[in-house]
Amino acid sequence: MSLGANVPDFLGGACRAAGKRGVRLACLTADASGTIRMRGGCRLMATGETEKWRAPAPVADTADAASAEGVSDDDKPESGQESLSGYVETVVYTADKESVSVGEIVEAEQNVSLLPLLMLPAVALVSPLSGIPLFSSTMGIMIFLVSLQIVAGRSTVWLPRWIRNLWADGRHVQSAFNWVKPLTRWLDAHTNARLRGLSRMPLVLVPQVLCLFSGLIIPFLELVPFSSSLIGLGVTLLALGMLARDGVILLLATIPYVAAGWIIFTIAS
Fold first, then answer.
1. So what's the pLDDT on residue 257?
2. 169 - beta bridge partners?
3. Cα-Cα-Cα-Cα dihedral sign, residues 154, 198, 218, 212
4. Confidence class of residue 234 from pLDDT cuts 50, 70 and 90?
5. How confident is the model at residue 169, as a pLDDT?
6. What is the pLDDT of residue 112?
7. How many CB atoms lie within 10 A of CB 202?
8. Contact 88/180 with Cβ under 8 angstroms?
9. Which residue, 4, 104, 162, 198, is most buried by CB atoms nearer than 10 A?
């Protein structure tokens, strides 16, 4: 929705109206062109409160507060970190239509870092969508491209047009991501800053490169049962561990890879 120069007036009026109705507009943002967007993982929340709406603290203020508390940059989570469940909720909200494209989902998550964008195709592989022919291969290519850009140090994602234009039935996407919600909530509840050295340079290159090679091999495992889903779970844990700077989660990510390797070895022998 574009309102041009009237954006401040609109936001002020919307917030005042929302406060009267007990609804908090949690994460509205406006860019230079006057386009109003919702930040990734955010949604309207009925709170039953009548207090005046207040905007989220600016990133700079948050960083200053962390510095005042003596928290180093290496100990802080990735910039803009939200919960994994929040990213899944954004996909479900975006897919609330007849059909939804990869580009629309990426656009909905555009205000976050590359690690959440790496988790989305990985989570999709864990869902029932992985049973669609060639779906795993496409998600593998997407994982490879995003991982490559993470290793290269890019802050914004680039995907070829043919991937952005891929679409699926919105109801199927919603159903698949709703299916993985219990897993994402469990991961959110058990994630903390532990063994932080594993998520810092140069050791963090290990999970980054492992995600890169995971994307490369997934297309070749299209016909191996459960292998793509297990690797997708591994990539999800790796990305979450890097995002939350949780070395324990990074270590747990090796378990799905061991399981996938055992399945491949069993079939090959």
1. 93
2. 99
3. positive
4. very high
5. 85
6. 65
7. 6
8. yes
9. 198
φ/ψ of residue 166, rounded to 5: -65, 140
Q: Which range among 107-121, 155-169, 215-229 shows the weakest confidence by mean pLDDT?
A: 107-121
**250-263: per-residue pLDDT in tens?**
999 999 999 988 98
3-state secondary structure of 3: coil
Main-chain dihedrals φ then ψ at residue 111, nearest 5 degrees: -90, 10
Residue 65 backbone dihedrals phi, psi, to 5 degrees: -65, -40
Prior bond of 202 cis (ω within 30°): yes
CA atoms within 13 A on the CB side of 88: 24
Query: Which H or E run includes 181?
Result: helix 181-189
The DSSP line for 200-239 is STTTTHHHHHHHHHHHHHGGGGTTSTTHHHHHHHHHHHHH
Residue type for position 83: S
**β 45-46/23-24 pair status:** antiparallel
pLDDT attached to residue 258: 93
Instruction: Tell me which residue has tokens 């070829």.
Output: 160
Token reading at 157:
């994602």
Closest of 250, 248, 175, 171 to residue 208, by C-alpha: 250
Contacts of 87 (CB under 8 A, 6+ apart): 40, 41, 109, 112, 116, 119, 120
Q: Which residues contact 219 (CB under 8 A, 6 or more apart)?
A: 136, 137, 140, 141
Angstrom distance (rounded) from CA 96 to CA 169:
10
The pair of structure tokens assigned to 257 is 């890879």
